[in-house]
């Protein structure tokens, strides 16, 4: 089973990219924080209005899982390693084996 995913390029961080999802187009800004050794994503609407800042990208943890905001994407986006190898998100696997998977397989 292979999910659709949002591509991430750790070598280009920090950067912003447009992401077209089912309900809208969003601006995702990806960056790395050296202090806590984690990757983060900010999500904004198409016009650049920030919806949620500094969401950590954690393996097998849905983004914005504890945030109730109608402006967020309706899809569940989960950093997954479908190969089952990764135990954490890091520079070697993010965008390679760990992808920001759009959990839409059950919808088809």
Strand and helix layout:
Layout: E1 4-6, E2 15-20, E3 25-33, E4 38-45, E5 50-56, E6 77-81, E7 98-102
Antiparallel strand pairs: 1-7, 2-3, 3-4, 4-5, 6-7
Descriptive terms for the model:
globular
Give an account of the 3D structure:
With 108 residues, the chain is mainly β. It is 0% helix and 40% strand. It has no helices and seven strands. The strands form two sheets. The chain has a four-stranded antiparallel beta sheet, with no helix packed on it. Strand 4 (38-45) and strand 5 (50-56) form a beta hairpin. The radius of gyration is 13 Å and the shape is globular. The chain starts with a strand and ends in a 6-residue tail after the last strand.
In short:
With 108 residues, the chain is mainly β. The protein is 0% helix and 40% strand.
Outline: globular
CA(first)-CA(last) distance: 12 Å
- Percent strand: 35-45%
Count the helices. How many?
Answer: 0
**Helix-strand sequence:** EEEEEEE
Secondary structure: helix percent: under 10%
Based on helices, strands and strand pairing, what is the structural class?
mainly beta
| C-alpha Rg (nearest Å) | 13 Å
Give the biggest sheet. 4 strands, antiparallel
Compute the average pLDDT.
Answer: 92
Number of strands: 7
Unreliable stretches covering 5 or more consecutive residues: none
Give the strand order, joined by hyphens, for the main sheet. Answer: 2-3-4-5
